Amino acid sequence: MKETGKALMRRLRHPDFTTRYFVGLGLDICGGADPLTQYAEMLPAVKTVRSWNLVEGDPQFLAGIADSTFDFVHATAVLQTVAAPKEALKHWLRVLKPGGHLILLVPDEDLYEQGMWPSTFNHDNRWTFTVFKTKSWSPVSLNVVELAQTLGAQADLRRLEVISDGFRPSLPRFDQTLTPIAESAIEVVIRKRPQAEAVAGGRLPPLTRALTSKDVFILTGLRVEPS
Q: pTM of this prediction?
């Protein structure tokens, strides 16, 4: 129920979403009745958002979209419905520009499915997700960290959090996302490393020389005494 809208109200409290992640030209995958476009005015750094829905093709492949097209790709409650999540993530990263961000929400298997499979709340769901478990009750459980690792050196995992805002664990089993307040999700933000950064094994400082104590004072206002 309006998961993009619920997430946005939470995300607006975190500056990274408005100053780093939702910036420039974006792609919103299968936003349906709750597309990111209807909230674009609340994201001042967004230039335009293109919506990709099922009528345009399989969201797993994004056929026809060239590599390195978008500054960000957003997908809420989509990854659990595709045939091959690893393949989908590969293509979603493919259409990102280097330095761009992939912003995902997937249902947390314990908060959403609540111990039952096949899904009784959404018959389109093919997969369940967890941040980490040594054992899962779900026969189709996927670990989101392991999924990110399949993307290789260009995947820079910037945010990973179980989102349970408004969720009430004391209530009997039902789909709490149908309420106006509850989220039952895992939020993932992956930055696409530029090729040089991927080869180097991480993001390196842009300066070609070491900072002097004068540089530190200019940047921070703190005096650094020579050791």
A: 0.91
